[in-house]
Structures are given as structure tokens and as C-alpha cells.
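Expect chain and fold; see below:
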Amino acid sequence: MAETTAKRIAPGTPTGGDGQVNKKLLLVAVIAGLVAVGLFIAYDSARERQLTGDTVTVLKWTRDLKSGEEITPNDFAEVDIHRNEYNSQGKVLTKADRQLVLGPNVHVNRAVSRDEYIRFVQLVGSDRESPSINIRKGMLGVSLPVDPSYTPGGLLQVGDRADLIGLFSIKGRPAKAYVLIQNLRVIAIGGRSESPDDRPGVSSARDSAARVYRSFTVELKPEVAVQLADLMPRIEGKLWLAVRNPTDNQAQFDNKLNPEVEALLSNAPVTPGKPGQ
């Protein structure tokens, strides 16, 4: 009976147990294939990032603009480019620079073309920002002589606040010192608009401590600049500069002429050449 049953099963015919094993092997093969594809995609993406770098969002013109034309929010758009392309383009504005083209009354200083990347020079006119950009709107930068024997050296830095002191001799009486103006913002020292510590190749601490200069530039209201120009020929010698603490921004004569000094203008005789002595 057993012999008859064995003859009925054809050789090579899978049994139920063998079928289950084959299905499991097929499932494992499919999963292994999917994992291999995923690893290949991950490797290819990593290789692509290695070759091209990350992307940078930059600004691009959406239309042609003529020199002097005002920029509107519709005149530019954000586009993503590879970092290696961004690095090869020079000074191209990025998404972080949007405020430079979104401000009121912003104009291009030269003709620009659609699809051209936006560059800083198209807005300000030069590859390097002019030092005068540090002067606030509505104010004037005025250079004044100072007695080099009494300069504060490295104590004074661009951006500091200072008071002006001058000597007056009224009606032949001995000269007296007056505080002329207070809390003036210093925007240049000895003709230099940047901090002396920024000069390359120089020991900044030693250089700052030993600095002597004959002039400095302060920020003045236009009307105060005129008053000071009228006052300068009446001052005995040159101005003295008194540096303020950075946190001491409250002053009685804040960017305005001392009323007592202003009253002296009508009485003090003009002596030509005094400021240069």
C-alpha cells in the first residue's frame, strides 16, 4: 500500500512545506532588492551633494530695469542655485539680503536685465560700500581740528560719543572754557572712518594707545553745523574733545549749541586765523 502511494507522487513535485519555503525566499529577495535600491539612491544623493554642495537661495531680477528706476517687490524673485555656482558668481544678494531691495525709495544705479542675479553694486554703485553710508539721513559729517597734545588716543573709537570744549575771550577778558556741544557721534578719526583696531598687520592695542591725530569727524544736524562754522573763528586755539561713556547718552546740549555760547556769538570779536594756530 505504501508502495502504491509513492508511485502516485511524481518526482520533483513540491510538497506543501517546500512551497512555503520558496515564498519566504522570494519575499526576502524582494526586500533585499528594495534595500539595495534605497542604499543606491542614498549613496547617489550623498555623492551629488558632495560634488555640487548645498543650495543657496539668491535674488534674481524678474524684469529689465533702467538706471535710476525704483525697485518694487515684483521686480525680483527668489531662486535656488547650487553653492558652487553661488561661490563663482561673486557678490550676489541672497534671501537674507531682501531688506536691501525692499526698503522705501530703493533704486538701481545702472541698467539691469531680467533673469540676472541681483548684485550689491547695482544698488550702491561700487564694489565697496562708501564710508559716508555711516552718516545717518538728515545729518552731516563735519571734520573739526583738535589739539593733538590732548587727544584721547585709543580711548576714542569710531561710533563713540564725545563733547566739544572750546576757549573764548570776551571783551579782552581772560579766556574761559565752555562746553560747546555734547553727545556727538564720532564717524571718523584722523581721516579714518573705520576703527583703528581694524587695520591689518598692526598691533591694535599698541597702535591705539599711541595714536595722535589732528582732526576728527562728527555727525551734526545741518543747522548746528552752520552755527559751529560761525563759532570756529572765535575759538581760542583748537577744540578739545571729551569722550563720553557709551551708556551715557543723556546730555543737556545733545547735538545742539550751548545757549550760553550761542549768546556769546554776538559779542565775541572775530580773529581770523585763530583755529589754525
Observations:
- The CA atoms of residues 47 and 190 lie 54 Å apart.
